[in-house]
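Project outcomes to date are best conveyed with an example. Our students and postdoctoral researchers have been running inverse folding experiments weekly, and each run begins with a structure described purely in tokens. The record below, which covers 328 residues, was selected by the lab manager from last quarter's runs and is presented without edits.
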């Protein structure tokens, strides 16, 4: 069995059946996991779910900044082959898209991006030929550097959810919490300064062509509950920063590496990550492209009114990218 050095919240069989039955019912009623009518129906469907499910999906409540929801069982023989690109997934695993949307709605509001995976609210993360060395979810042969999801954007998710469809090789997602680090106060003060921007990653081609001037952003932000973080070294122009800031950033990288954990998901597991506290990545692996490679589904969640980000973010242009809400 894969190791999982992260908090685990277990659904009992009755609660797991309640959640998957609700998802199957929504899918049968609306015909597609991408149906606008299904998205609109999510809050009412969640209102009918019982307290056991709701308790398991309470907010992240430890300094780890993450947990694994376990107890949902998935038979990957029913999925068909792992596709070679997100655009060829079609309806495969559609009921799990809806499960993920229900879980997301219990925790906040699912969001999507008009410039990524055609505006879908559930993304499919699979290794793709020709993308092995990129710093995106389609890569395989390189370490996916620990990062904040969509760090370039002020409207990025508060929570990131990863649902495992297939993971025969026990490939680990890495995660590290800023609240487990032991940074010197001087380093924290350096990284609270808005010195350099975070640029759009390779999954956002339109954003990379945006003509507006990139705005410097702070890496760390202090809240009443503790430090929060906005971090993506692969897309941060370090050469534009002063020596003191770069040294503090290196110390942060070292601390995050020291406290990093490896989470190997089983089919049906859902990893919930607080995107303001935890950076995540993935160990390198060799993709076979034979239909058995690792396959995750990903959802992003926004929590209205959450005071975990600097007020100045409201003035950022977001490189022209607009976040879409599943419902209002």
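After processing, the design step wrote out the following sequence:
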């Amino acid at each position: 069995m894969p190791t999982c050095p992260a908090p685990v919240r277990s659904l009992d069989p009755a609660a797991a059946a309640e959640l998957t039955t609700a998802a199957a019912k929504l899918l049968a009623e609306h015909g597609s996991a991408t149906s606008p009518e299904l998205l609109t129906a999510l809050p009412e469907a969640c209102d009918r779910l019982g307290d056991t499910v709701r308790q398991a999906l309470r907010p992240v409540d430890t300094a780890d900044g993450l947990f694994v929801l376990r107890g949902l069982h998935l038979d990957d023989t029913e999925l068909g082959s792992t596709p070679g690109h997100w655009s060829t997934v079609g309806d495969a695993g559609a009921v799990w898209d809806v499960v993920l949307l229900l879980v997301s709605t219990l925790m906040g509001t699912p969001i999507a991006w008009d410039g990524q995976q055609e505006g879908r609210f559930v993304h499919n993360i699979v290794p793709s030929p020709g993308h092995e060395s990129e710093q995106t979810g389609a890569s395989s042969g390189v370490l996916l550097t620990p990062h904040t999801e969509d760090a370039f954007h002020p409207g990025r998710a508060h929570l990131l959810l990863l649902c495992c469809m297939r993971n025969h090789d026990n490939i680990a997602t890495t995660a590290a919490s800023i609240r487990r680090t032991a940074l010197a106060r001087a380093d924290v003060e350096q990284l609270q300064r808005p010195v350099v921007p975070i640029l759009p990653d390779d999954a956002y081609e339109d954003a990379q062509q945006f003509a507006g001037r990139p705005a410097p952003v702070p890496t760390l932000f202090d809240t009443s509950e503790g430090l929060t973080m906005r971090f993506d070294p692969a897309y941060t122009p370090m050469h534009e920063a002063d020596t003191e800031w770069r040294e503090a950033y290196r110390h942060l990288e070292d601390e995050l590496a020291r406290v990093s954990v490896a989470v190997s998901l089983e089919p049906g597991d859902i990893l919930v990550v607080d995107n303001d506290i935890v950076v995540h990545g993935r160990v390198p692996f060799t993709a076979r492209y034979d239909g058995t490679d690792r396959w995750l589904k990903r959802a992003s969640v926004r929590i209205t009114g959450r005071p975990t980000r600097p007020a100045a973010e409201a003035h950022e242009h977001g490189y022209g990218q607009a976040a879409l809400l599943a419902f209002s």
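The first helix runs from residue 13 to 30. The first strand starts at residue 8 and ends at 10. The training component of this project remains on track.
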